[in-house]
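Table S7 (text form). Paired inputs.
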Amino acid sequence: MITAKIKVVLVCAAVLLTAAEAGAVGVPKKIKIALWTNSKTNNDKLMFLARPGEKIKFSMKTSSQGQYRWRVNRSIRKKADGSSFTWTVPAKKGVWNITAGIAGAEGRGEVTWSVTTSAIKTVKPGKSIQKAIDSLPAEGGIVELLGGTWELTAPIKIVKRGNITIRGTGIGKTHLRTDRKMVMIQITPFEDNAWVLDETRGGRAVQRLGRDPAMKADYIENITLADFHLKSDGVPVAKPVFQRGGILLAKVSNSRIFNVC
């Protein structure tokens, strides 16, 4: 779980990843996840729209048997310990991550499906990610980034809203780049202009006084960032926070970042 008041995440690190939760003692280390599928799309698609009340079966195949663990968002399903799991979509608008883990797996140890009953916005390279986020309904949804490269000239912002997933097709396929000295993704419950990066304080995010009642805003819930590569290059920088771009989190909880480098 992410619970952050003010935090700048340096990507290409193990912070905020939850794959270790799938680990256990005494299971062979050479287990590999061979394939995965779901009964909604009948293929290996990891993002899709579902109907409230719909039953969906998620399955994965591994090179050998092991100890399986299934989660819906942060909730471990204790009675689900096989290679498949049937889930009933809640009768409301929202976004959920269904994660299958195998203890002792080599390489990729988890598979996560992102499911929404709200909306999915698919964004092609060169098109605006920000416009896709802003076009999601109040209940949130999924922004699916196809393979390719985006050149960012301004931060991607999620402000005063939750239940949003931004997900690419993989670290080696979906790339977000900038040649500017800036945090690339900002997630805060404050107004757009409420945060600045203060070079005199080590590049940390600090509040611009007088704009918002400090820390009184509600936490943002249920944000997922996954399966893309961030890169900031071409700019000499003075502070480590900018060396690889980054993600600014302010008052964010019950959220997840994985496969982001």
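Next pair, protein 2 of 2.
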Amino acid sequence: MPPLARYLMHLAELRYQMPCSPTSTRRWPGLRGEQDEGWMAFFTPNALSASTGIVYGELAQVVDPRYACLAVLLLTAAVDGYGDDMTRSRAFSLISLAACHLIDDRVDAGVEAGECAVELCERLGSHRTVERLRQLRNEVERRRSHRGARELADRIRAFRPPSSVEC
């Protein structure tokens, strides 16, 4: 097993220590409304849900596709919780969500999430989105018999981030 897959499996095994688990509020006081430690302030419930969902998504791609359903739940919660001030995080989570839907053979849902992700990426002007979308395109290409998947693959292939973003 590749080292990355081993690492991701280890993270998945630690899921009961993560905030998305039912026992997590005992370990993460900020989730109960208590004062967070300074370093924990960065890790909002949305950020932790997204990070955990992305880990499960990676596991679904390289270890076992059954991890996709957990990833979908966590990434959906993260996407729904992001406000307008977190557009890039929302876009990255949508990209992962789309891939996980596709891995879980929910092509229509994957295409829908992928379309939303591309729309956000077109407004961002972030070159980091190109690589993330390329990974999604690889997953979409495997389903080219689906009309929506074919159109999404073409849209991602044509994607070019804006060279600059107005402030």
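Residues 15-32 have pLDDT under 50 and may be disordered.
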